[in-house]
Write a structure and sequence with these properties.
With 148 residues, the protein is an all-alpha fold. The chain contains six helices and no strands. The protein has one domain. Helix 4 runs antiparallel to helix 6. The longest helix is centred in the first third of the chain and has 32 residues. The chain is elongated, with a radius of gyration of 16 Å.
């Protein structure tokens, strides 16, 4: 449960530190502004999806449903993969090299977390990896670049 709370805290920190809701989106906004808004959106989408999956899997674990734990492994791995793919797509849309690089570094770190998930314990431990190393550093850099 502590790790789920950490994941929620990470998502909240990304949302607060990032572009914020006043970032313009759409046709009139720059590619960078759109990428910043999408960065926040992707991060905020991941948190409740992960939390929901963990809650279901923990309930299943308590009931002795090993099959549901196996499903959680696959679903959470895919959540990380989708998040990384979304960040890479945004990195390809921007011309600002620093922002593109930071988005790609964060995507690489998140994809690495997905690759490391093999057991339910890995699923539970994965949010801590978001707080450490390359993912956290890239996220902080993106937040700074998006803040202006």
């Amino acid at each position: 449960m502590r790790r789920y709370i950490a994941a929620v805290a990470i998502g909240a920190a990304l949302a607060v530190a990032g572009c914020g809701s006043d970032t313009p989106e759409g046709d009139g906004a720059s590619a960078e502004a759109n990428a910043c808004a999408r960065f926040i959106e992707l991060s905020n989408e991941w948190v409740p999806q992960y939390g929901s999956e963990i809650a279901a899997a923990l309930s299943a674990e308590a009931a002795g449903d090993e099959g549901r734990k196996e499903t959680a492994i696959l679903v959470v791995r895919q959540l990380y993969t989708d998040w990384a793919d979304g960040l890479r797509a945004e990195a390809g849309n921007v011309s600002e090299a620093e922002l593109s690089d930071a988005l790609n570094r964060m995507a690489d770190g998140i994809a690495g977390i997905a690759d490391d998930i093999e057991t339910f314990e890995d699923v539970q431990a994965s949010p801590q990896q978001l707080e450490e190393g390359a993912v956290a550093e890239a996220g902080a850099e993106i937040a700074q670049l998006c803040a202006g």
